[in-house]
Specification:
Elements (H helix, E strand, L loop, with lengths): L1 H43 L7 E6 L3 E6 L6 E2 L10 E6 L2 E6 L6 E2 L2 E2 L2 E6 L8 E3 L2 E8 L2 E8 L3 H5 L29
Parallel strand pairs: 2-3
Antiparallel strand pairs: 1-11, 2-4, 4-5, 5-8, 6-7, 6-9, 9-10, 10-11
Length: 186
């Protein structure tokens, strides 16, 4: 009787161990799949990489912009009026001047003229027209326009990122042990 009970106990333990391992594997695979889905969602987000359609560096003075070929800064064809306005750069300040009949907003409010960048400002406004969104960026002494199109074909056509199947044999189990003090050697 004791041998039968011990055998039953060992068999039950093996099944429970296999079931726990299978559940752990499924949990790990779900975690990787969720991470992959979030990665794609981030690429398609309003500030993701797939809608980035232009980067234009501003010269000192007046920089005309629009989709017409006569502008200093040429936005994608058909995305905005041929002559939409101008960016006037004066040192480390940029002023937006909107052409008559063109609808442009700064932080959701219609404008005809506005300072859209000043090096002392803590607020980064978002300028918009139709599906276009742009912000001012600064890299060293260069100031530029980072242009996004929320209806970019890349956003709509992008489906997936190629990847290898999840293989739990490559899973690394680790425990993070902190020293208790940031910046102090262990």
């Amino acid at each position: 009787m004791a041998k039968a009970t011990l055998s039953l106990f060992l068999i039950s333990s093996c099944f429970l161990s296999l079931a726990a391992r299978a559940q752990d594997t499924a949990s790990y695979q779900r975690e990787i799949t969720d991470w992959h889905a979030k990665r794609i969602q981030n690429l398609k987000a309003p500030n993701g990489w797939l809608n980035l359609v232009g980067l234009y560096w501003l010269d000192e003075g007046r920089n005309s912009f629009g989709s017409g070929q006569s502008n200093k800064i040429i936005f994608p064809q058909g995305s905005i009026n041929d002559v939409a306005g101008a960016f006037e750069r004066s040192g480390k300040q940029v002023r937006l001047i909107v052409s008559a009949g063109v609808a442009i907003t700064v932080d959701g409010k219609p404008v005809k003229e506005a300072v859209i960048y000043d090096e002392d400002s803590t607020h980064q406004p978002v300028i918009a027209s139709g599906s276009l969104r742009w912000t001012i960026i600064r890299r060293d002494d260069k100031i530029g326009i980072r242009l996004r199109d929320l209806e970019s074909p890349l956003v709509n056509q992008f489906k997936d990122i190629d990847r290898f199947p999840v293989d739990t044999t490559w899973r690394v189990r680790a425990t993070l042990q902190t020293t208790g003090q940031p910046g102090q050697p262990a």
